[in-house]
TrEMBL record:
Any one GO molecular function term: monooxygenase activity
Entry similarity comment: Belongs to the cytochrome P450 family.
Cofactor(s) required for function per UniProt: heme
Principal location listed in the UniProt entry: membrane
Lineage, broadest ranks: Eukaryota, Viridiplantae, Streptophyta, Embryophyta, Tracheophyta
Name of the protein this chain belongs to: Cytochrome P450
Binding site for heme: C476
């Protein structure tokens, strides 16, 4: 024991010396001008500005680690250094983009350059070694799984086939809340909407992915246990995804694993894989029993993927079909549960703080749908104010304010600056979507802007002022499904219930720290039905 401290000190000293040598060599190499291939190449490239204060070895990593809300920290840096600046995250350079013009350049003229994702510790340890779509490097495998997602899972036909699942889950949730009102003596019932919407979204997605329902009445004890395991694993996935910057900037830290984060990520992957494998085994047994028309009427995403396997539709480029199926299923869940639930919570919180807007949304529903039937997905195109509410919420509170990072696959110029191959790219959607040069009163919740001056803007990646789901070839393939789920859920909640909170206090809109832009505090409301009782059965 008496030799432990000296040995540790020696190890740390050797490690520090080694890191210094790596840094010095890197700095030396960065100053070496490559032999020019033409007279034009003699001009020293212009690099994006770097904020001062970078440390040896770790660079600007303290800025990211210390920032409770990185998107706001980056916005403040953009005010000083411009719409494109460079941060040194350990050994890796990262370009931070904060304007629609530069973002558009990255997603159009340079889209092919930034088509890949950086290798990350979280992607390796929790996402089947980057097999989950959001982590997958650009290449043949990514093209194949993107094609499967676009053609087989998120096609208009497939989304249409899942319409009864969406309607059923929302109706069951409404029925449960109505029953609580009855049990409360037909008096307004206190509800914590944040938890309620997380459970509803969880049921919606697990039903569409695997035909599973884990919350609500008539849920078996075994399913309750699985729900707890799964929900915790998804929460841990998102937590570690937002707290692994140090391991990506300094890869040796994952090997040393001082805080046990790498071990925790491996355990999270183990829990998620157990659930995915259980579902996959069950669906294979079910597929073996399918006959006739049942084969053509597959009910959920895993049904589709297992049937593709049985009929030999997977490309020869996919070597591990088991991992591919599990990764595709997991993609929908880790990308969808918190993002959709958080967005709907923000919508309702903002409406409760603006009761005149809440009344306007309900008047639109009463006028276009009435109170003698439930709103359907076919009604959504006529609910312009509801659509504007969701757009304005996604503008002010994008779930991922810093979009999923990209990486340059070759040297290029962006915003007039030279960007070397291997440079990471962060698009700060939060800053772009609150740019006062684009948006009038950008910090004010004003859905009407999408009915007048910004009526033609969409959230699907074609309007570079509004990028909650990204753009280009790496944009979210499930955006259409996500919008349908959120529109229907919000429409039915607003149509079916009167929602109130304490008018003297209002809803606290304080944000959580981390990569997901979620509300810190619970959303406690009083709910009472506003439709005939038979519509809740």
């Amino acid at each position: 024991m008496e030799f432990q401290l000296p040995l540790q000190a020696i190890a740390v000293a050797l490690l520090t010396f080694l890191l210094y040598e790596i840094w010095a060599l890197r700095k030396k190499n960065s100053n070496i001008v490559k032999k020019p291939s033409s007279s034009k190449a003699l001009i020293k490239p212009k690099y994006a500005p770097e904020p001062p204060g970078a440390w040896p070895i770790i660079g600007h990593l303290p800025i990211l680690v210390s920032a409770k809300q990185p998107h706001r920290a980056f916005a403040a840096l953009a005010e000083k250094h411009g719409p494109a600046f460079l941060l040194r995250m350990g050994m890796s350079p990262m370009l931070i983009v904060s304007s629609r013009e530069v973002a558009k350049e990255c997603y159009t003229a340079k889209d092919h350059v930034f088509a890949t994702r950086p290798v990350t510790t979280a992607g390796k340890l929790m996402a089947y070694d980057h097999s989950v779509m959001g982590f997958t490097p650009f290449g043949t495998y990514w093209r194949e799984i993107r094609k499967i997602a676009t053609v087989e899972l998120f096609s208009a036909r497939r989304i249409g086939m899942l319409k009864p699942v969406r309607q059923s889950e929302v109706s069951l949730w409404m029925k449960g809340l109505h029953e609580k009102w009855v049990q409360n003596g037909n008096s307004s019932v206190s509800v914590e909407l944040k938890t309620q919407l997380e459970e509803l979204t969880f049921n919606l997605l697990t039903q569409m992915v695997a035909g599973k329902r884990y919350y609500g009445s008539n849920v078996a004890k075994a399913d309750e246990k699985m729900a707890g395991l799964f929900r915790h694993a998804v929460q841990q996935f998102n937590y570690h995804l937002g707290n692994s910057e140090m391991y990506d900037a300094l890869p040796f830290m994952a090997w040393l694993d001082f805080k046990g984060d790498a071990k925790a990520m491996k355990n999270t992957q183990k829990d998620l894989d157990y659930i995915m494998q259980t579902w996959l085994d069950e669906h294979r047994v079910k597929a073996d029993q399918m006959r006739g028309d049942a084969i053509n009427n597959t009910r959920d995403f895993l049904d589709v993927l297992v049937m593709m396997e049985k009929t030999g539709q997977f490309s020869s480029a996919i070597k591990d079909i088991d991992t591919t199926i599990k990764a595709l299923a997991l993609t929908q869940l880790v990308a969808g549960v918190d993002s959709m639930a958080n967005t709907m919570v923000w919508v309702l919180a903002l409406l409760l703080n603006n009761p005149e807007m809440l009344a306007k949304a309900q008047i639109e529903l009463d006028t276009n749908v009435g109170k003698d039937r439930l709103v359907e997905e076919s009604d959504i195109p006529n609910l312009n104010y509801l659509q504007a509410l969701l757009k304005e919420t996604l503008r002010m509170y994008p779930v991922g304010p810093l979009l999923v990072p990209h990486e340059a696959m070759e040297d290029c110029d962006v915003g007039g600056y030279f960007v070397p191959r291997g440079t990471g790219l962060f698009i700060n959607a939060w800053t772009i979507q609150r740019d006062p040069n684009v948006w009038a009163e950008p910090d004010r919740f004003q859905p009407e802007r999408f009915l007048t001056t910004n009526v033609d803007m969409d959230v699907k990646g074609q309007s570079y002022e509004l990028l909650p789901f990204g753009s280009g070839r790496r944009s979210c393939p499930g955006v259409g499904l996500a919008l349908q789920v959120m529109h229907l859920t919000l429409a039915r909640i607003l149509q079916a219930f009167e929602l109130k909170t304490n008018p003297d206090v209002g809803v606290n809109l304080e944000e959580c720290s981390g990569i997901l832009l979620s509300m810190m505090h619970p959303l406690q409301v009083l709910a009472a039905p506003r439709l005939p009782s038979e519509l809740y059965d």
